[in-house]
UniProtKB/TrEMBL annotation:
Keywords assigned by UniProt, alphabetized: Membrane, Transmembrane, Transmembrane helix
Chain ranges of the PiggyBac transposable element-derived protein domain: 11-62
Xref: Pfam families: DDE_Tnp_1_7
Species annotation: Nephila pilipes
Entry protein name: PiggyBac transposable element-derived protein 4
Spans traversing the lipid bilayer: 51-68
Keyword Membrane: yes
Taxonomy, superkingdom: Eukaryota
InterPro entries membership: PGBD
Length: 110
């Protein structure tokens, strides 16, 4: 077991095999590892939507990798959340549908 620092300033122990794998794994392995942390696609639904959101996930990962290579300091989750906030600010709309026109009809018990 090897002690490694964590984000919360506490040392964690990991098996040596895990450390060797993490040090030698390639880009696809890293992408798969990170994309499973924040799944966007649902188990059910239209196939084209799953493909679209998977491609969107891959695109966000590629942008994140480029961002870090150019000196970016964000973590992956913070980066994703910042992009989401920016997209909502720029393209989001407020849904102001009123629910006053709904009528409540209780079902009588026999």
């Amino acid at each position: 077991m090897i002690e490694v620092p964590s984000y919360m300033d506490e040392a964690r122990k990991k098996p040596k095999v895990v450390m060797e794998y993490n040090n030698t794994m390639g880009g696809v392995d890293r992408m798969d590892q990170h994309l499973t942390n924040y799944p966007v696609t649902k188990k059910r639904g239209k196939k084209y939507k799953k493909i679209f959101f998977h491609l969107l996930d891959i695109s966000l990962w590629n942008v994140f990798v480029l961002y870090q290579k150019h000196g970016g300091k964000y973590m992956h989750l913070s980066f994703r959340l910042d992009i989401i906030d920016h997209l909502i600010e720029r393209h989001g709309t407020v849904n102001e549908k009123k629910k006053d026109n709904q009528v409540f009809c209780p079902i009588p018990y026999d």
